[in-house]
């Protein structure tokens, strides 16, 4: 027992859990009960799964099974109410997960929800959780602090889900009553960990009970995976980090543009099968005097011709070792106005948790 390797149950499918139940000599429906305890009830320890008979719980514990929720290594609270969690996994690696109460309207919403906030708390609480998909990132965008970590490893499906459960449990969220958005925009490139990411999405939907329509995945533009994603029968919404209006600038700030340039990326977006009323989101990080001129905005709008989309503008969140500047609020507003005049819906993403380095691109564990 003492030297047994722990094995997390979170991330396993109903079928896999049913096999375990069978191995334990339990009737078939115990697999479903275990699934419900892990995802629906979001248990932290196997002993909490009180719907299961004691002998089954003991059997699981004796064999080294654990629920698999990561430990909360650190938590920082911002003056704006957002929280940054450092979730630590069994191998000692950690990633960051951010809780943003009342949602970040520029993030998952389309801006139209502003002003309709309910006064009654709890049952109408809204929040967005920003989730990591890898420890570090291999993509090396020049404005992003995660890039400085390099890539350590992929997260498993269970680790992706575990981060979310950690945050939901701390806030005692009832996913049926409260409106929780998930954005896969934390550390890492979800489309370079595609299978684990999609498995996590399925389990979060079927088990945890978060609707797919409240999930958005952001990619820096891994073209073959965008095509795969389009073929999924059930999937979250898609956001693309474009960040530049021409290849010269994009290659400079996102070296992966050498592999899949803007035309190749936008071709993939054009053939992406959107659902009724669905739009693709383009994210555009504004870097002072690099990609934030009115000419850039016009060129950007031109690129988007014929794509059903909206744009989220993000003024650079500065950080140590990031060699770009943040444009003035006035420049950001002008950029937005140019896009809108060209018929492109554009929103400015409100920075959250800047004071605790929790804003986009600032998720670097050594930052504080
Ligand atoms: N790897 C994925 C998802 C995580 S990054 C992707 O790149 O899309 C999430 C968003 O944060 C991206 O749109 C990225 O362009 C943006 N971002 C990265 N660094 C930033 C910074 N320093 N300031 C503002 N936004 C940043
Ligand atoms: Fe990776 Fe996204 Fe950061 Fe680029 S912006 S380095 S893809 S996390």
What does this structure look like?
The chain has 368 residues and is an alpha/beta fold. It has 10 helices and 14 strands. The strands form 3 sheets. Strands 3-4-5-6-9-10-11-12-13-14 form a 10-stranded mixed beta sheet, covered by helices on one side. A hairpin with a 5-residue loop joins strand 4 (83-88) and strand 5 (94-101). The longest helix has 15 residues, at 194-208.
Q: Got a strand count?
A: 14
User: What is the residue-averaged pLDDT?
Assistant: 92
Strand order of the largest sheet: 3-4-5-6-9-10-11-12-13-14
Whole-number radius of gyration? 21 Å
Order of helices and strands: EHHHEEEEEEEHEHEHEHHEHEHE
Structural class determined from secondary elements: alpha/beta
Annotation field: number of helices:
10
Helix content: 25-40%
Defining traits:
single chain, 368 residues, alpha/beta, ten-stranded mixed beta sheet, 29% helix, binds S-adenosyl-L-homocysteine, binds iron/sulfur cluster
Write the layout of secondary structure elements.
Blueprint: E1 7-8, H1 14-23, H2 29-40, H3 54-62, E2 65-66, E3 71-77, E4 83-88, E5 94-101, E6 126-130, E7 134-136, E8 151-154, H4 157-170, E9 179-184, H5 194-208, E10 215-219, H6 223-231, E11 237-241, H7 247-253, H8 262-270, E12 280-286, H9 294-303, E13 309-315, H10 329-341, E14 346-348
Parallel strand pairs: 1-2, 6-9, 9-10, 10-11, 11-12, 12-13, 13-14
Antiparallel strand pairs: 3-4, 4-5, 5-6, 7-8
Helix pairs in contact: 1-2, 2-5, 4-5, 6-8, 9-10
The structure holds S-adenosyl-L-homocysteine and iron/sulfur cluster.
